[in-house]
Amino acid sequence: MKQSPREKKLEEMLRSGKLVAGGFMGTDTRHPIEVIEQDVIELENLGVTTHQLVKRMEELTAMAKPRLGSWIDDPSGKLRIKSEDFKGVLVCPWPHPGHYEKRITTVQHRETGKQVVWTDLNIHMIADHGFFEGRGAFFRIEPVEIVELLFEDLT
Amino acid sequence: MIDFLLTVIIVSSISAGLALLLVLCGKYVVNYGPCKITINDDRELDTEGGKSLLAGLVEQKVFIPSACGGRGTCGFCKCKVLDGGGPLLPTETPFLTKEEQEDNMRLSCQVKIREDIKIEIPEELFNVREFQAVCSEIEDLTYDMKRFRFELKEPSEVKFTAGQYMQLFCPKYKGNKEEVYRAYSIASDPKENNYIDLIIRRVPNGICTTWCFDFLKQGDSVKLNGPYGEFRMSDTEAPMVFVAGGSGMAPFVSILSQMRNTDSKRKAKYFYGGNTTKDLCMAEEMKAFEEALEGFEFIPVVANPEEGNGWDGETGLVTEAVQRNYDDLSEHEGYLCGSPGMIDAAVKVFKELGMTEDKVYYDKFA
From first to last of its 366 residues, what are the pLDDT tens digits of chain B? Predict the structure, then answer.
């Protein structure tokens, strides 16, 4: 796949550990553009738009934030959520101003125990860049897993 | 068709050649020569132009806090540039408020020394030193928190005020090719000058905490610089409310040690929050402080006590425990250390209970 100099620079940044330990691409050998395209298509096939997904993630983070890292139940009672924040900021690897609080939200299904974890930076990268991170990255979000958990009615 | 391709190849080659020439010129030909950094209209440092202001200062052993190693991603290395800093760069603006920009604040890692430059930095930064040390003890405090002791080798003594912090250098390690500094509050007694204790909580996928927890061993050499920070106990006699969670314990161990050293009679209640009893730590040490300090009380708070473990202390959020214990905090001072969310929540509660903002002290590090 041919890349523009800008895309090359972005890929270097995503694969480096300059902003987060191990970088954003994990062990994924695909180009970031391919990762983005394939994940967005997968999400669409699951019947969810990035806008819907991001809105749901933001809602759950906002719900858990005031509990300072303690678990709370979502209104349906099917999920439990916690949101922990740490000192420091996470910086978006794309070339634009953007730094996000180091906050980690964990959502767990009460019955199955399945869980998905994201940071505020994940929410931004999905919303603005369609990027779920590469496979093997610490905060990689699998579209199918997050849709199964957050949009149970659709699956 | 061949003409077209040939044109494209020629134009591309010329562009690439010019770009390469620019890069090579920047690296080998452009010579800014010797430059002066004037600090606070008082000190002059000689340096070679072409490097970042941060690098120029570090080279002369003047340390400005910086967590990202000069990549412009942490926003810590702010200083006032009065002359010679060039225009504000887009890489700086996300980290500077409008007021800071108007006040000539810059990120020193982004300012390139091209000519003589005049800057202002807090005088206290001249006391910051770089220390070579050895990790002499590692103690598990909870499942995700450890206390590290660093014996100072060169220089072998440090002077700090309880509440201040150090920056720990995190080297490259397997899986991390980047060198960074991270700030941690000092958790040792200020009268002990030969070592520094740091309490560190593991941050999932954190660059420095992963190194501390998975790679750093007893006997390893480490590098630190400091002390930094304005967070400290005031010199009033106002009763104090301490609120902390997790590794926010650190500065309070130091402050309580200082109170014990000076036989302080000042009243202080310390609310320390955890999600479960497994998040609590240093109960014995806190008990010893209670015995040594007549005005001190330690109140651990557990948000979700495990069923059947017999927890009979305060429950709920640490801020809720503060609300239960006080009706009026207008005469008190508040001291906070912990996650940004906890600090924001505690400041809100303090204000609701009548404490004015000038009496709330904290160090968010970010």
Answer: 667 667 767 777 777 677 666 666 655 556 788 999 999 999 999 999 989 999 899 888 899 888 777 777 778 899 999 999 999 988 888 788 889 999 999 999 999 999 999 999 988 888 899 999 999 999 999 999 999 999 999 999 999 999 999 999 999 998 888 888 889 999 999 999 999 999 999 999 898 999 999 999 999 999 999 999 889 999 999 999 999 999 999 999 999 999 999 999 999 999 999 999 999 999 999 999 999 999 999 999 999 999 888 999 999 999 999 999 999 999 999 999 988 899 999 999 999 999 999 999 997 654
Residue A82 vs residues A115, A121, A144, B163, B317: alpha-carbon distances, Å: 11, 16, 21, 30, 13
Residue of A20, A86, A117, A138 for testing the chain B interface, max B β-carbons within 10 Å: A86
CB contact under 8 A, B341 and A138: no
**Residue A154 structure tokens:** 């659709």
Nearest to B205, CA basis, from A62, A31, A144, A140? A140
pTM above 0.90, yes or no: no
Going by the DSSP 8-state scheme, the letter that residue B52 receives in this structure is: B
Kindly list the domain boundaries of chain B, sorted by start residue: 34-125, 128-228, 240-362
B317–A97: do the CB atoms touch at under 8 Å? no
Token code pair at residue B136: 């002499």
Distance CA A52, CA A39 (A): 15
- Least Cα distance to A85 among A67, A101, A64 occurs for A101
> Looking at CA atoms only, how far is residue B4 from chain A in angstroms?
20
Q: Which CATH number fits domain B240-362: 3.40.50.80, 3.30.750.24, 3.30.70.580, 2.30.30.60?
A: 3.40.50.80
Which residues of B have a CB under 8 Å from any CB of A? 67, 71, 73-75, 90, 93-95, 175-178, 182-183, 201, 203-207, 210, 245, 273, 275, 303-304, 317-319, 339-342, 345, 364-366
Q: Classify domain B128-228 at the CATH class level.
A: mainly beta
The reply to whether residue B341 touches residue A85, judged by beta carbons under 8 angstroms, is yes
Which residues in chain A have Cβ-Cβ distances shorter than 8 Å to B204?
104, 117, 138
Interface mutation vs chain A, best among B207, B209, B214, B363, most A CBs within 10 Å: B207
Amino acid at A47: G
Interface confidence: ipTM more than 0.90: no
Q: Is A98 exposed, middle or buried (0-12, 13-18, 19+ CB in 10 A)?
A: middle
Beta carbons of B138 and B148 less than 8 angstroms apart? yes
Cross-chain CB nearest to A87 (options B73, B94, B365): B365
Instruction: Specify the number of domains making up chain A.
Output: 1
pLDDT tens per residue across span A96-114: 777 888 999 999 999 999 9
